[in-house]
Every structure is written in C-alpha cells, then in structure tokens.
Design goal:
Strand content of chain B: 15-25%
Oligomer: heterodimer
Helix content of chain B: 25-40%
Structural class of chain B: alpha/beta
Radius of gyration of chain A: 31 Å
Order of helices and strands of chain B: HEEEHEEHEHHHHHEHEEH
Radius of gyration of chain B: 18 Å
Strand order of the largest sheet of chain B: 6-7-8-3-9
Largest interface: A-B, 27 and 38 residues
Distance between the termini of chain A: 28 Å
Number of strands of chain B: 9
Helix content of chain A: 40-55%
Number of strands of chain A: 15
Order of helices and strands of chain A: HHEHEHEEHEEEEHEEEEHHEEHEHHH
Largest sheet of chain A: 11 strands, mixed
Largest sheet of chain B: 5 strands, parallel
Shape of chain B: globular
Amino acid sequence: MIFALAIKSLRNRRFTAALTVLSIALAVVLLLGVERIRSEARESFASTISGTDLIVGARSSPVHLLLYSVFRIGNATNNVSWDSYTVLASRPEVAWTIPLSLGDSHRGFRVLGTTQDYFEHFRFARGRKLEFAEGRRFEDEHDAVLGAEVADALGYKPGQSIVIAHGAGDVSFSLHKDYPFRVVGILARTGTPVDRTVHVTLAGMDAVHTEHDEASADPLAAAMHASEEAGRRDAPGAGHAADDEHEHATGSKRAITAFLVGLTSRGAALSVQRQVNEYAGEPLTAILPGPTLQEVWDIVGAAEKTLLAVSALVVVVGLAGMLVALLTSLSERRREMAILRSVGARPVHVFGLILGEAAFLTLSGIAVGVAALYIGLLAGQPWLESRLGLLIGVGWPSAHELELMILVGAAGMLIGFIPAYRIYRYSLADGMTIRI
Amino acid sequence: MSWPRDSSALVAANARAPDPDNGVAESVVDLSGVRFSWTGAPPLVIDIKAMQVGRGERVFLRGPSGSGKSTLLSLLAGVVTPRGGSVRVLAREIGVLGSAERDRFRADHIGFIFQMFNLIPYLSVVENVSLPCGFSQRRKAHAVRAGGSVEGEAVRLLEHLDMGAADVLRRPVTELSVGQQQRVAAARALIGAPELVIADEPTSSLDADRRTAFIDLLFGECTRERATLIFVSHDATLAPLFDRNIEFAEINRGSAPERDARLSTGDRK
C-alpha cells in the first residue's frame, strides 16, 4: 500500500524524479564503467605475456625493458649482440628463446623482427597460443604477418604489399621503399600489443637495413637517418656496445633488441637471471615478467584508484541531489501527510512512504545506470578495442560490481532516512493540522 | 506543569466499555474534564467540563477561528491525547490507547472531511475515496459487503453524491472544482461506514447554493450509513440545519489561542 503510494507520488512528480534517477544513473554508469574498464585493463594487462620465464635485454631498468619489449612502448637504449644471444640461448637450462628486433614501424604500428619460434612458443592470457585468422606464418624474408588490429585499421589482406619505415612514429620521412614486404598471414585478435604489431623475419629486418645502408637514394632521408642515429648515440645513458638498434646485419654484426626465454624448469629462473645479469660479454638485464608486470601495474594503479575515488564522489553528488529533491518536496507534502494521517496512516507509514520513494529512486537509478552502461559498452566496444586496445567483456556484472551496486543502493536508502525522519517528526507534531 | 491522570481508573472504564463494533454504545463522543495545552503547561487550549454527542446525531460545533476547535478534533481523532480528563469515543477511552491503537481506531471508526487540500493529488478520484480501506481492514470489509468491492463501493458513494459520471471518475482530482473535490472528500469519509464523521469547515470554500447542496448530500449519506456527524464551522448561518448546536466558547474554558494553522488541512483563518 505504502510502496504503491510512493510510486504514484513519484509519478506525480515525474520530472524531478526523472532528473534524480538520471543523476544517480549517470553516477552509477561512471562508477561501474570505471570499475569495469579498470578490472578489464588489469586483466588485459596481466594477460599480455604468459609462459615466458625471463625477458633479456640491454642493461636498463626492469620496467623499461618490459615496456619496450612486451608493450612496444618506448625504445631500447641499447641492443643485445647476436653473439651474446646465441651464447645465452644455448645454455642447458634454456628450453626456447624468441629474439625480438624492434625499431621500425608501418604507418604507426611497430614492426617486430623475430623467428618462427615466436609462433611456436609465445603465449598470452594464461597460456593461449597465437592463432591465425587468415593466411600462414612468415617463411620468406619478404613475408609479413599482421596483428589483428593492424589488418583491421589499415584494411589489409594477405597478398598485399607493405613498406616499413624507419623509426616508430606515425609519420616517417624515411621509408624502406626498396624493400617491400608481402602480407602472408593475419593473426587472430589477442587483446595484447601483438594485435598492433607487424611481424617480419629477422632476415627480412636485416635485409631492409642492408638495402637502406647501401641505397639511401633520398638525401633528405639519409640525412635524417644519420642525424637521428647520431642523436641516439649521444643520448645520455646510451651505451657503446652497439652503434644503433638498427644496425642489424648478419653474422656477428647482427644485433637484436631483446629476447624472451623459456626454461626447462621454472625453478631455474632466478639462477639464470643472475647469470645473465652478471654476463661478462656485455651489460645485460634479465627480468621475471610477473613481478615486473605487477610493478608497472602498481604505478598505473594509483591513477586508477584516484579515478575510482572520483567516481565514488560522483555517486555521492548524485545521491545528494536526491536528498535535496526529497527535502525540498517535504514542506509542500505535509498536507498530503496530514490527509494520510486522517485516514489512519501511522507516522511509521509516512516514514515508509518517503523511504520507499528514496529506495525507488535509487534502485531505478541503478537499473537505468546498469542498462545504460551495457548499451554504452556494446556501442563503445569496437572503439575501446581499436583505440585503447581494451577488450571489455559485456558479461554479467562481477561480484565486485554487484557489491558496488549494493553499496550505492544501501547509501541511497541511508540518505532516504534523513527526509523520512524529518517527515516522521513533522507528522508526529502536525497530526492532521499543519503548523509551520 | 502537567495534570495528573488516573490511568488505572480509565483502563478499568475501558475494560467495561462495550465493543464499538457491536454498536450498543449510546454516546458516540463523551468528554469529561478534558484539559489540553500544546506546551504541556498552562494556558490551556482546551478545558471542557463535559460534552456528549449521541449516536446518529448531527451536531453543529460553532466557534471563531483559533478558538481550539481543530485541537478538539485532534483529541477526538486520537492524534493528541489530553493532559487530563477523559475523551471517550464509541465508549473507548482514547487516552489509554497506545499510539498504534489510536491510529487503528481512527482508521476504523472515524471519517474526516477537511476544508481544503482534501485530496491526494496523485491519486485518481476512486483511489482517493478508497484510501481509508488501505489502512483499515474493518472499513474495507464493510465496503466490500456494501459495494461488492472497495472500488465498487467508492463508485456507488460517488454516484450518490452526483459524482458518478465516467468522465468525472477518470479526471485527475486536481482538475475537479472545489465543490466536486468536497464531495469526493465526503465519499472518502463515508466509505466503509465509520460510526463518526468529522467535518472541519468543509463548506467554507463553497458559495451559498453549493454549501446547502453539499450539506444536504452529507446528511443523506450520514443517515444512510447511520453515521454520527460533527460539523465544525464558524459560519452561524448553517446552524439551523443541524439537530443540535454547540457554541464552542460556551463549553471550552481554555483561553490560549490555538496554534497557527493557516496551512491546516482542516482549519481556516
């Protein structure tokens, strides 16, 4: 009876009620949206690499090595010589290795020179293997395999020719035009930086730069190339062991950016890590991916916690809006309460009426917010995936999201107690006669 | 200062009282030595030595605004309890009932009509009339017995009050004229056959013709439902229409002005 009255009363004040529901809904969308993106980002982040025991690169900070080798963010300050790589790769504890050679790009997407071992041993998202959506692995040094997002964004199909550029920027003046690659395969989507990578053979990468060094027909490009490489050599922290990450060449001159290592026994990880770090041939760093991923997430985590706190404050503002709407309606509704009292409503009924309204507004706000969030996720999923590389699932709410919803509902009810108590006091004092 | 009250005597009196639902009590309202002030201390708003209203009577209670009439009605309704003396309604001592019992008693046995702001704006005409049945099982049972259903009884009462046209029933209550609103309020007061109907200045917003017509309708319905009517007004011209007149100033020796009730549902300045 009282709840039915509360609903009818709200329908009578539908404009204010709709605005209140809207403000709560927006707050809920923000709160749950941030939470959803946060947890998916964390999941996606942790899924980036799996099954790799060590990552080895030139001496640098672990976070830096992880960022450039796995996330393709930033550049290596130095390379790993091919000799060191072969020495370390042939150690008995090492089951497999994947050499990574980075530095070039294709229309803003990083180009990775690697070997067949990449398709064989690279794992992501708790042990998932790379799969092909179309085509096959690279075999020839002119072959290129595209990540899913590269193919989607640029509309490439197997058979297409592409030219890679020197450096990692969106726009490059130095194109390796004399050495085009042919797309032979497109990988299935992984939700990791693999999707945004163009994969070629190490031999192909070497060939590009041999051509480049020999030809350099364009004087402007050649000048830029030279100046860029000189700058890199002069940069603070730049080592001297390799002139440039691009100085790929066959044999002992060849260098790679980093390599991933799989061990025969995971228990050997710490001892191999120590051996690499103490390697006499050149200064190298080996990292365990798990702890370093956690280290990076801890840095990002502070920002996401702030974001969550801001969303929580928006919820508080939304609920405060409801409080204001209910409180301002009270004085004009004292007559209504007096009529209800005259027909036998008890003060507790009057209390329940206002609390019921608060409950209805809050629950409607949550329901509308959740619906809007799902519509937004469905509509925004492709954009989030293509622009941020975030694969946001549109599944059932997680336990934590349900907790947040219950928390918002409980907060709404709690706030409803304020106007409900006020009207309760009024109705005790007023009875059927309103005195102000 | 407060007044002593011999509650044990009142409880005993209540225990001997016949059940109002059996309808054997002769006196519907019986006040004796009732004293009340809002602050709990003198001056008194209500100081009535004795007042009785018999079953089926139609009583006109006249007095100027602010003289304490609305406070008396609050005492009869059990919204407030006296500081001293006895307020018996349908042979039930109101002062000894708990708050919840008083609310239930009011819902079961008393129908109210106020001067204005009588209706809940977000309920339909029929829902407004049916409202008391939502709070009283007794009145709901009466209404179902009389009209087949609560809604049926509401429509029946509205038809008796010339409000039965389908378009009127469907219209939002805020679009009704003041006279129509008062008739809806009367139907609400009468639904479920309460023994006592209290009308607090119900005609002061109506012109002379409509006032007389409304009172005729109200009398007819009270007679049909065998209800006792206490009609409160400051308009002396209505007095001859009633069985009995009570000049409030003559029975009430309280001197304190009633609280400001300009927004009252029942009182008027």
